[in-house]
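Training component of the fellowship. As part of building independent skills, the fellow (R.M.) carried out the full modelling exercise for a liganded target. The chosen ligand was 2-acetamido-2-deoxy-beta-D-glucopyranose. The inputs are recorded below so that the supervisory panel can assess the work.
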Amino acid sequence: MAKLVTVLALIALLGSTARTCQAGYGYPTPVPSIPSTPTAPPPYTPSTPSPPTPTPVTPSPPPSYTPSTPSPPPPTPTTPTKGLAVGYYNKTCSRAEDIVREVVRDANPGIMAGLIRLFFHDCFVRGCDASVLLDQVDPNSPTEKFGVPNLSLRGFEVIDAAKARIEKECGSDAVSCADVVAFAGRDATYFLSNKKVYFDMPAGRYDGLVSLSNETLPNLPPPFATVDQLKANFASKGLTADEMVTLSGAHTIGISHCSSFNSSFSDRLNPSTSDMDPMLMSSLREQCKSDTGNDNTVVQDIKTPNKVDNKYYKNVLSHEVLFDSDAALMKADDTSAAVRANAKDNGVWEEKFKAAMVRMGAIEVKTSANGEIRRKCGVINSY
Ligand code: HEM
Ligand SMILES: *[C@@H]1O[C@H](CO)[C@@H](O)[C@H](O)[C@H]1NC(C)=O
Ligand SMILES: *[C@@H]1O[C@H](CO)[C@@H](O)[C@H](O)[C@H]1NC(C)=O
Ligand SMILES: *[C@@H]1O[C@H](CO)[C@@H](O)[C@H](O)[C@H]1NC(C)=O
Ligand SMILES: *[C@@H]1O[C@H](CO)[C@@H](O)[C@H](O)[C@H]1NC(C)=O
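Fellow's submitted model of the complex:
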């Protein structure tokens, strides 16, 4: 066992080393095909308008959970999504959500952006099941982390730290990694919005047992996707075109590698083919320049790079966005109307974003029948 742990730790270490020195987005094939099996999350019915409760961490009773007992059967779910419930860990680990929030609060804004993207990538590949976190064990079967669109995923250490603290308080079988990822994405949104975008995240996900690198490309939309491809991709996850536009607003934070918008697939810095604002284009050309062939990074939202707000939509309207997929939102009547609506400072986008994050968090969720509660987020339990 000790040996296995060492090997796994080594793999994890190698993985994290590789993370820091990656090449470009480097799509090996043209536009990935879109999977045809729609797996819709159940429709989300907003529960009673709960007031935005950025409750300062209330002292909670001592954990009632003892690590030695088998994990409790999942409580019968109520609303809003099948199998998921707000306050799922009320009894089994009442401090779970507080712990995740505390760990996320201490992360820097870049890592917070990474956590929101991690949640998206997790949910779009095999559902929200923490499979995005799995380290490769079988040398012949690379996991999602090794898929092309994994580029620059970050925030893994926050998930691990939160899970470790939860284990200390509630035992290792209490809270799933998939729920930690969902809470972390929600909390990163909360902090980056200056506590404006707060919402309940239903929980009760189990962790999946499969992670395959070759499933990332067909499931995650590429930055050179057309509006039709974006719609089809989100529809294959049971999400609407409007939700696609709403969730794209996450590109109001974080960074991108230059290769994501300047490559043989995406020629966004070419003035003769790109509709990008000339000022931004010349600035990006400068920032992307590299004597060493380094794939530099740039911020996605030049105006408020670390703030979750509706600035993204203003950037789309003024042609100050990085990706073809961002600009593509203006290429269809319904999505361009949604961009215009979301660009208004009336709080509508913020409300839609909350609901869309919850809906994304319900994609293909696992149950105890086809999932587990992992003791360590990168590693499948071996009983
Ligand atoms: C609509 C289709 C989408 C496409 C084509 C897309 C593509 C990308 C790409 C290419 C990057 C830059 C990666 C890099 O070069 O380092 C990126 C970054 C990011 N994306 Fe998306 N994305 C999409 C939707 C989403 C959604 C739904 C979310 C979350 C709700 C999201 C959140 C983010 C965040 C937060 C970053 C910055 C990450 C960081 O700074 O570490 N994206 N996206
Ligand atoms: C957990 O507690 C909150 C607050 O009292 C309540 O709204 C929620 O429904 C509870 N959830 C469960 C699953 O018990
Ligand atoms: C993906 O990889 C797995 C394991 O490496 C393999 O069994 C499977 O056939 C591959 N799927 C596709 C579509 O290539
Ligand atoms: C992403 O994939 C590349 C290979 O495609 C791999 O070298 C790298 O380690 C992966 N990144 C992460 C975060 O695991
Ligand atoms: C854009 O990408 C091409 C390769 O596709 C590269 O030759 C060029 O230097 C890049 N431009 C900038 C400004 O990074």
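The panel noted the following from the submitted structure. Strands lie at 80-81, 84-85, 255-257, 297-299. The chain is about 35% helix and 5% strand.
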